[in-house]
Amino acid sequence: MSELSDQPGDALIKPPVGWRERLSAWRNRMVADPKFQRWAASFPLTRPIARRRARQLFDLCAGFVYSQILDAFIRLKLADILFEGPATTSELAGRLSLSPDRTLTLLRATSALGLTVSLNPLNGEDRFALGELGAALIGNPGVAAMVEHHAMLYADLRDPVALLRGETRDTALGGYWPYAARGALDHLSAEQVSAYSGLMSASQPLIADDVLDAYRVDRHRVLMDVGGGEGRFLAAAARRDADLKLMLFDLPPVAERARTHFEHLGLADRAETHGGDFQVDSLPKGADLISLVRVIHDHDDDIVLRLLTAVHAALPREGTLIVAEPMSGVRGAEPIGDAYFGFYLMAMGRGRPRTATEITELLKQAGFRKAQETATIRPMLTGLIVANA
Ligand SMILES: C[S@@+](CC[C@H](N)C(=O)[O-])C[C@H]1O[C@@H](n2cnc3c(N)ncnc32)[C@H](O)[C@@H]1O
């Protein structure tokens, strides 16, 4: 055995290839040198870049703390309180049941993050208003619900290396999303689906309009939403086209929630709900448009291929499939698709965010003739691929 092969890492180390790799290796050596760092921070031309990089690095280190400040902001309903109008620290301390000191700590922290704004003091007392980011949460109850369920994600990420090595068993998110467990799903109860289904329903309005703005459904007769949850996407589509007939397929207890939701919305005459497991059941026919919204990233390739094949079989010759979900490799949205969803789905125990090219490849294997990526206004929330059967 050679000396090098005794060191597992060494065998992988290869010199940079080509000028780009050599340039970035040289840059990395410079940036890693504390003397260079000090020089760059003091030299006027490099100072702004050095500060920006230092800030980015600090944000990476502190991200968890920022998230927990947001969690406190949401759980204490500070946005709702400040939406009524600005308030002083002692007024807020009373409303939040916190000591004035802790209230000030919270308010300074939320101001630093743009959730609140510090105003001029009144009678020597600090005063705060709702900030722009805090105000955006008022109109998006789905974001608050997402943030609250992150307690499970953070518990699962406590040891990220153990998670990466597959050593973390029985994750909290795996329990929250019971369909992520391999095997039969016919035992799932109404109670087991209610938490995730409610969360999806609350966050769906964020997605639905972006998808429906990017793809017009009024050129179709019947839309079937597979993995359609409680029917929020279909209800939004129904508002776009009064003649569109609706079909929903989901696990039986979720389909039942959708049926109740359609009745509540007065859509029962236009909507059929079908309960089943797309891992084993075929899909009902009759739709000329099928949607998979935030569905395939939850599953491994073998199940996705089975599902896409079932969708292809359910569509007529000229039928269309739209796949909408956050994707990997989207320029400008990499922290969401690749970092957030990459680790979220790993903690959930199944699936992965895929690039548009990877999804297109699976669509082709499932028999789709053509698949095209279509722009959405907020690709960090959802990308879109339109495929023809
Ligand atoms: C992440 S949720 C998305 C729900 C909805 N499309 C949305 O965007 O709000 C995934 C959905 O797929 C459904 N699902 C997961 N596995 C399934 C299966 N094997 N058969 C049928 N539905 C399934 C879940 O019940 C859930 O409603």
Structure description:
With 389 residues, the protein is α/β, with parallel strands linked by helices. It folds into 2 domains: 47-138, Winged helix-like DNA-binding domain superfamily/Winged helix DNA-binding domain (Arc Repressor Mutant, subunit A, Orthogonal Bundle); 141-388, Rossmann fold (3-Layer(aba) Sandwich). The protein contains 16 helices and 10 strands. The protein has helices spanning 18-31, 34-42, 47-75, 78-83, 89-96, 100-112, 132-138, 141-156, 160-164, 172-176, 190-214, 232-240, 252-265, 301-314, 334-348, 356-365; strands at 87-88, 116-122, 125-130, 222-226, 245-250, 271-275, 289-293, 320-325, 370-374, 383-388. A 7-stranded mixed sheet has the order 6-5-4-7-8-10-9, with helices on both faces. It has a 3-stranded antiparallel sheet with strand order 1-3-2. α5 (89-96) packs across α6 (100-112), α8 (141-156) packs across α11 and α11 packs parallel to α12 (232-240). The longest helix is centred in the first third of the chain and has 29 residues, at 47-75. The protein is globular, with a radius of gyration of 25 Å. Residues 1-5 have low confidence and may be disordered. The structure holds S-adenosylmethionine.
Task: Compile the SSE list and pairings.
Layout: H1 18-31, H2 34-42, H3 47-75, H4 78-83, E1 87-88, H5 89-96, H6 100-112, E2 116-122, E3 125-130, H7 132-138, H8 141-156, H9 160-164, H10 172-176, H11 190-214, E4 222-226, H12 232-240, E5 245-250, H13 252-265, E6 271-275, E7 289-293, H14 301-314, E8 320-325, H15 334-348, H16 356-365, E9 370-374, E10 383-388
Parallel strand pairs: 4-5, 4-7, 5-6, 7-8
Antiparallel strand pairs: 1-3, 2-3, 8-10, 9-10
Helix pairs in contact: 2-3, 5-6, 8-11, 11-12
S-adenosylmethionine binds at residues 179, 185, 197, 200, 204, 207, 227-229, 233, 250-251, 254, 277-279, 293-295, 298.
